[in-house]
Amino acid sequence: MIVSLARYDGAISRALSHRPLIFLGEISYSLYLFHQIVIRWYTVNFDAFSPIPLWLQYAGIWIASLAIAAISFMLVEKPLRRAILKLADGVGGAYNRMQRA
């Protein structure tokens, strides 16, 4: 499996290379951070959701968790990643200039 994924030509690699799955992989850390908050909020407010079918409640938890994770990724992680890379390029460039001097 590792070889198949590393070569990018296996069926699993092709299946995992679709944009929605790539995006889910990118937001996975945000999902890890925020899903527990959504679940705890739901638990505290459980009585308010009692008229709603249970399967719809679970779907709502998933949708809310994924939405919060996606928003967090787009508004926090992505911009900060760009800023860190830009800063690293600046520091690396300064380091390279010092080495040449």
Structure description:
With 101 residues, the protein is mostly helical. It has one domain. The chain contains five helices and no strands. Helix 4 runs antiparallel to helix 5.
Question: Topology of this structure?
Answer:
Elements: H1 2-7, H2 11-16, H3 19-26, H4 28-44, H5 54-100
Question: Can you summarize the main beta sheet?
Answer: none
**Tally of separate helices:** 5
Q: What is the percentage of strand-forming residues?
A: under 5%
| SSE arrangement, N to C | HHHHH
Over all CA atoms, what is the radius of gyration? 21 Å
Mean pLDDT: 85
Shape: flat
Q: How many domain modules?
A: 1
Percentage of residues assigned to helices: over 70%
N→C terminal distance: 48 Å
Q: How many strand elements?
A: 0
Class from helix and strand fractions: mainly alpha
**Sequence stretches where pLDDT stays below 50 over 5 or more residues:** none
